């Protein structure tokens, strides 16, 4: 069994996300605590997690000092438009990897294979991608899980503020063409 998880657009510490997305929390602290709790309810310490961007809205990782170490799993961050703290400039990426031992990689784009299926991971939904694969993305904050043929939105807004397991990805993609070796 593959214990691989995907999520996007947590926006930890971002007060305006509560109103912008209609998230059902009174305070950002309540929001952050609940998203951490929901993540850890499903994800085990030794499992793999791909965050597809916008972990926070902050330009520095200060808010994340308290959050990322609490999150279970080995985390790969596919940077989003608000992940300023993890950009390549001024050594931010290297600092972030040093600060958070459970953060194992920071990239802009990634392709992985799971059970002979290729997954294309990027924060933004893209029009076309690697032939006969499934594209996972965030960014849109919509509530539709399947956002186009072969494209699945893994943002927390679409999944009751929980990460998405690989089995759910395959269920949502049922019937889509996928690469077979």
Question: Could you explain the architecture of this structure?
Answer:
- By secondary structure, the chain is an alpha/beta fold.
- It has one domain: Metallo-dependent phosphatases (Purple Acid Phosphatase, chain A, domain 2), CATH 3.60.21.
- Helix content is 19%, strand content 23%.
- The protein is built from four helices and ten strands, in the order βααββαβββββββα.
- It has a five-stranded mixed beta sheet. A five-stranded mixed beta sheet has the order 5-6-7-9-8, covered by helices on one side.
- The chain starts with a strand and ends in a 9-residue tail after the last helix.
- Mean pLDDT is 87; it is low at 177-181.
CATH topology: Purple Acid Phosphatase, chain A, domain 2
Structural class: alpha/beta
Order of helices and strands: EHHEEHEEEEEEEH
Estimate the strand proportion. Answer: 15-25%
Query: Terminal Cα separation, in Å?
Result: 19 Å
In terms of topology, how is this protein built?
Blueprint: E1 4-7, H1 16-20, H2 28-42, E2 48-51, E3 74-78, H3 92-99, E4 103-107, E5 109-114, E6 117-122, E7 134-137, E8 146-148, E9 151-153, E10 164-165, H4 166-172
Parallel strand pairs: 1-2, 2-3, 3-4, 6-7, 7-9
Antiparallel strand pairs: 1-10, 5-6, 8-9
Comma- or semicolon-separated keywords:
single chain; 181 residues; alpha/beta; Purple Acid Phosphatase, chain A, domain 2; 5-stranded mixed beta sheet; 4 helices; 19% helix; disordered C terminus
